[in-house]
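Cross-posting from the modeling subforum.

Setting up a comparison between two proteins and wanted a second pair of eyes on the formatting. Protein 1 (sequence, then structure tokens):
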Amino acid sequence: MKLFCFKILVLFCLSGFYSYSQELVPPIQNFSPSEYVAASQNWDIAVDERGVVYTANNQGLLVFDGLNWELFPLESQSIIRSVYPHNGRIYTGSYQEFGYWETTDEGCMTYNSLTPLMDEINMQSDEFWEITSHNDAIYFRSFGAVYKYQDNKITKIEDLVSTALGRFQDKLLLAPRKNGIVYVNDSGAIKPLEGNPGVIEDLNIIDLESSGDTLYIGAREGLYFYSNNRFKRFWNDKLNSLLAKTELNHIISVSGNELVLGTIKNGIIHYNIKEDSFHVFNRNSGLQNNTILGMAYARDKLWLALDNGVDLIELNSPIKFYTDNTGELGAVYDLQIYRDNYYLASNTGVYRFSNEKLELIDNGADHAWNLELIDNVLYANHNTGTYKIINNQFIPVETRTGSFSIIKRDKEEQLLVCHYTGLSLYNPALEEIRELEAVNFPVKEVVFEGENKIWAAHPYEGIYKITTGSWEDIQVEKIPALGNSENFSPEIYKINDQIISYVNEQWYKYNPFTDKFENFKELHAYDSCRLIIKDDYNKYVFVDSNDGSLIITNLKGDKLSIPAQKLNNRLVKGNENFISLNDSISFVTLNDGFARINLKKVQKEMEDQWISTPILKEFSDEVKRYSLEGSPVIPYRNAKNISLKAGMPVSEAMELKYTLNGEEKLSGTVNGGQVNFRNLKHGDYNLQLSAIGGSLNQVSSENFNFTIAPPWYFSIWMKTVYAFILVAIFFLVFWLNQQKLKKHQLQLEEKFEKEHSERLNRLEKQRLMNEIDLKRKELANTTMMAAKKNEVLMEIQGELNKDKNKFSNQFRIKHIMNKINNAVKNKDEWKVFETNFNEVHEDFFKDLLEQYPKLTSKDLKLCSYLKMNLSSKEIAPLMGISVRGVEVHRYRLRKKMKLESDVNLTKFLIKNF
């Protein structure tokens, strides 16, 4: 019987746990041991003012910068039990070891042990489980004692065995084992907390947490509180009963009206004091483990140190999720709230979500596309047909073929069913359905224009216009392809009585006057976005095909963007759906459940969101790390690969970007927390890390300057050498130019002297030529005068010879004839002629005799007259012979000179001598 009762009790407890597992839960992010690459167990967790997370792990200090996890083990490899960031230091406690971690200028984490300060304190296998600060001092607790660290000294606060450590109203509180609560006064003495300690007497207190004027006391037996100097047991008996079963381990106050209670057996309990209600989040809700060993709360984010991993919960997120971890539900395509129950259409069937439980509708298995509430009747478009859902059962409307959607035209009782082979008309009152045979192709959705026109979207082949005066006379016309390619998977809408189509990432509107679709310029900004719904609250919801974000707008300037990351990238791509419950609450279908969104809270969160400042953790080249405090100078030979590591603490930031300005300009996204710059040019650079929020105008930045030194051949010393060489080259060129100028001057002087000498020579030559010409003329004149004279004398002599017998004195005549003959052959005249001839024709006779040594003086005389180009007639009187005698002499001279008969003697002498 006892065994049976125990089993019933266990079953009751488990069913109690399950009742909280299927509710809508805030976003939960899991960090498994395989992701952070350290031990499973995490004993404590804390967040510093930058948003960096520190976890006390079995293998050391685990640090999460928002992008990467890093493990820093102790030299002793001890388990770290507690962690507490304070004033730039990270204090940690482990087995017989206490100290703090600091970040060096280069970004390295270094550990400084404070254990040597406790050499005079008798520690007995102490292990430090809790650390806090109070009045500029650090207090750390083991199960054996509490210690104080201040001014580089460590002292023990009496010999007190404490199970909890806390602060309340500027007092440091301690919880002696099963002996109430005490505080440390200004002098360091231990005093009991005023009030009625009997309420908490003999309690095993495990945690203390203050919130305003209230101190919350966690014990194994339940939750208590202290207010107005009175101890009381917490008023919610249901909560205390649950805590007793699940073993309370930690308490944290997240606001004036909210507590989070960490348990050993059932995850966390989120309690709202104002509403006196609570929610349980455990493994079934998405936690990795039900054992909560540590908690930290910062900027609306709750961090959990688990027995297996680390989890992050956004407790007050405006987006809450239902997630089917079993995989039974599959991808959800539509959601309707009908009679206070959620109905889900998914790729595995139609489900009802009621009383936080999920159940499949009878006969509702298989793919379901759509749920539609018409005239208070819920219809389902299913892979096997069209159904009504009544009393949790599928009631067939048409099962001949699967259907996509069902729609009602205003003021008509009949419904139009879009199915796999066309359209059907359904009369709910008569429960009659008939197929419209004129439409013999699949129709995914339709919109009505007026009373006699229907626009239908084929799921694959384009848009059709269906005209009908009545349902008996139907005309079908396929619309030519919009744009430059086939209209695969078009979408058709009716917005403000205007027909709109979205095809191939382009928006078109129908112009009834031209009977054509035209580019819809008003929606040009949304060309990359599909419209998934226009609801009754004048909201237009688009999904961006580039990044998967949801854009909610009224097309009048108001816009709210929900990044895909906010929905954990779980949208059903290509079949996204957005269902509005009212103007604030909406639902989004996901690939493993659905999300509930409070749009007003999302808007407020976007306006008040905190964007963390990026952290530059390491800056190094191929050889060394550099200080992050200044502006390092990197040697050029080491700058072929510059790497940096950065962090972006968890916030509303969506991505981390970098911008490098300097000799080169680069930009991009920091993936995995690391960026490499290769082969940068030398010069000065500014690196900017920017955390980008959900809205692009929300940015938080960090700047870092560095310099790449020039290569050795561009260094200061080499530039000095280059300057010296340039100066030397300048002076060398100057000297060479001077030498060249001097040489040129000498050449000019030489040229001038030469030209001057040549000019003088020319003048002298000209003078000599003139003199020669003058002498030649004188010689010619003298010769001609002598020729004339001799010619006259010879004529006189000839006349006298004719009449010599008439003269009485023959002796006298003979004497006169002799004088005339002597005058003609005067040797003095020849000498004068010879002298003048030699002055004009120097070396003529010498050269002539050298070549013809047998020439006589008479031959030479004839040659000289021929050189002067005198004719035989002119030569005859000069030689005192007849012209005939001259010819004979010339003939003999030719013989002596052995000249051919065709050679002109005069020309020969003029040319060669």
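Protein 2 (same layout):
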Amino acid sequence: MRKFKTESKKLLDLMINSIYTNKEIFLRELISNASDAVDKLNFKSLTDNDVDIDSADLAIRVSFDKDNRTLTISDNGIGMTAEELEKNLGTIAHSGSQEFKTENAESQGNDVDIIGQFGVGFYSAFMVASRVRVVSRAFGSDEANMWESDGLEGYTIEPAERATHGTDVILTIREDEGGEDGEGFDAYLSEWGLKNLIKQYSNYVRYPIQMMVTKHRQKPTPVDADENYQPEWEDYQELDTVNSMTPIWKKRASEVEQKDYNEFYKSTFHDFEDPARTISFHAEGTLEYDALLFIPGRAPFDLYSKDYEKGLSLYSSNVLIMEKCADLLPDYFNFVRGVVDSADVSLNISRETLQQNRQLRAIAKRVEKKISSDLEDMRDNDREAYEKFFENFGRGLKYGIYSSYGMKADELADLLLLYSAKEQKMVTLAEYAKAMPADQKAIYYASGDSRERLSKMPVVTGVLARGYDVLLLTADVDEFTFQAMHSYKAQGLPKVYEDDAAREAAEKAVADGAEPETEDRTLELKNVATGDLDLATEDEKKDAEEATKENESLFTAMKDALGDKVEKVAVSARLTDAPACITTEGPLSLEMERVLRRDPSAEAEGMPKSQRVLELNAKHPVFKKLVSANEAGDAEKIKLYAGLLYDQALLVEGILPEDPVAFAASVCELM
């Protein structure tokens, strides 16, 4: 017996037990090696006129013997001499494929696609096999040799018989260990198990992978059969090609019908609906790869659960490396499914995980841009489809802005759809900005649990009455998203002129045939229920100031009656019909407070409360009642009115009073 040419026991043990985390990938590695061997012979036939082979005959064959517990992977490729068996299999981590790639780097072209790089894939066979035999005959040689090892201390090499060039790798599969947690080695000795593994990992290897498969057919009807004859069926074995060979993502989009993409998507990603969008592209240059991406037609049930795994299937030279490579997608595009195939991505030694490198980042960046541009195209040219998409996946886009603290706002803001109270439909921020009056300086929004309630809130109707639109936000992440954004840069808005002379000159220029001037403007995002919107006219501001001075004692009495429920009581310049409303100061709005309180740990952690302000409409008849009570010195009535106005303002906001019983009693007392 010959010893391995490295510290065999330690290194081989590392190969078997540490590098690979999933035993079933051994078949992928052996098939990849066989594909490399066939590729080398194919390359030789292209560069050497004396080598005459028919490329249509090149193939890989998988067979098994359940009784003897053997699994054989055969190819009719380049084969190996005894010296090459010694060099390639006797020295762990020596890669004949990598050596071949290096020697022929300039002349390979597109007709050769060597997969192997590290020279350790072969040893993954010992994860499932107690013994491995390799019978190989080099192309052009009359002699065959057999390499054999149990994967422990060493190996033997001796003469053998093989009818033609190529290599057989024969694995003696280990016995099942039994029990619920048994290794399940018997699956590697079943037609169903092997076919599944080939389709999962090696479906797109460029050469046919053949197996004897069981099929079902009707027996011929006997010549003397009468009218009561019942057809009989039989099972039979037939050599069949198991893999698809040509991956759909390698084909140009013009060569594939949409129905074929749809079928591939549904069968690969286990969806029953066609995708909403298909994105196919090929990148060339210093980094080459093919990508086929799908935007699903519906959201998977677990999309927003912690168990959901994002990622694209990553292939290297048509061989599956990772089923879900999370690094290829940002979180806000986690709904996208698809495939990226690149021979240029640097893999780690087991091909199961990726090295963190610039190639991967470059692919991810390009993928992100392609998804964004395709969504923009859908938004602009198929609005109905985009609204359905946004209903399914818009939450993730909003969360992408919020979770990045607004850093991704430039990329994602124009993909948002929000409900316009004025237009009564979904609009983009750009559409909202283009429809604004010339004097509008901010984008106004209101947050709550329903559009119907929000549209009737006094703070919303007051803004609408002034001719400004209000976006009605009803998702729990909406206001957090807008807080992270702070503002929106609207492009191509009509230019606002500082004085009448400049405006009149511009109007005259347009009348003479000039193009209207436009400008980009940064618009602040303002919640209509927080802070000062600065919408009041000078007369309204003056009236509010006078009412505040004249009734200072009333506001003090109402603040004392409400205690720490409010920060202050003030005259409102935003109300039109309602007697009062609740607004807030500071960054925490009523809606944000309500969302945060849904967290079971909110109370225990002492969650901060919003700074509430009770605003009164000085022109409403109720205000006159309050003034009269204050002038009469009726403190009890002021206390009653203050509590009622505060509680009814909360109800308008969709918030229950702290003491509903006391509220009901106060209403009855007033009646």
